[in-house]
Each structure stands twice: as C-alpha cells, then as structure tokens.
C-alpha cells in the first residue's frame, strides 16, 4: 500500500494520507462548473394512472373476465371488440378534498386505465355481455358452438 504525504500550503506541515481524506467531488464540481439539483430539470408532470387486476376464466361455453373497479361509474367505462381484441378502458376520478382538510396518506390510485385482451378464434362477439355489480365488472364472452362433423350419405346405384 502506498502512503501519500500531503502538504498544507498555508502552514507547510506534512500530513499522511491515512489521517486526511481527500474528497474528489467538490473539485470536480468546481472544475466542471456543475452544481447538482440546479442543473437537473424536473421530469414533466404525467397524469397518474392505475391498473386494475383482472381474473380471466374459461369454461366449456364461455370466457369470463372479472375486475374489481370500486369507485368507477359505468359511464366512465368503455368496452369494445375489434376483430379479436377485447378492450376494456376506464377512468377513476381523483377524490376531492376540502381546503381545510389534511391528508396523511393517499394510496388509492386514480386516473385512466386500459387493458386489451386477445381472444382466440371461435368466440361469438355479438353475444358479449358486461355487468357491473358492487364494484365488480364481469364481462362474459361466449364461445361459438363447435361445428360437429356430419355424416354425408352416398347416393347412387348399389353394387
């Protein structure tokens, strides 16, 4: 290990490097003319969003999508089907606070959300049903009846 001897220019005394630690960061800030936190720009404000979680189940005759969406009004929900893409989007408004009210914790999410699910072939898009009950959205996507093979009789003279 190397021991550095540092001279103090004002007193001329010598000090071992073990007794004195040099911090390079102030010297680099001076050299570069950079002061942290003043040169950095704050990130642009973004609209807060939340992502409700979905349960997706399949039965023999349908696909069932469920999501807990407390506090979301039905008029703030949009469910669309384009080709085989089921899109569920919505918005929960931020809770209003009075001027003299103090908040200690604010953990509930608000803002917009959007989920897109790719459906397999063979769903009946004309019969999709959506219900909202006690803050739970349920979307039922029925399957088309399976095409069953049909025996085709052969006609003609018998041999």
Task: Write a structural description.
This protein has a four-stranded antiparallel beta sheet with strand order 3-4-9-8, with no helix packed on it. Strands 5-6-7 form a three-stranded antiparallel beta sheet, with no helix packed on it. The chain has one helix at residues 24-32, and strands spanning 5-7, 14-16, 54-58, 62-68, 77-82, 85-92, 111-118, 129-133, 136-142. The chain has a domain at 54-95 and 109-142: Immunoglobulin-like. It is mainly β.
As a whole number of angstroms, the C-alpha radius of gyration is 34 Å
The top-level CATH class of the domain at 54-95 and 109-142 is: Mainly Beta
Q: In CATH terms, what is the fold-level topology of the domain at 54-95 and 109-142?
A: Immunoglobulin-like
Question: Which CATH architecture of the domain at 54-95 and 109-142?
Answer: Sandwich
The topology string of helices and strands comes to: EEHEEEEEEE
Topology:
Elements: E1 5-7, E2 14-16, H1 24-32, E3 54-58, E4 62-68, E5 77-82, E6 85-92, E7 111-118, E8 129-133, E9 136-142
Antiparallel strand pairs: 1-2, 3-4, 4-9, 5-6, 6-7, 8-9
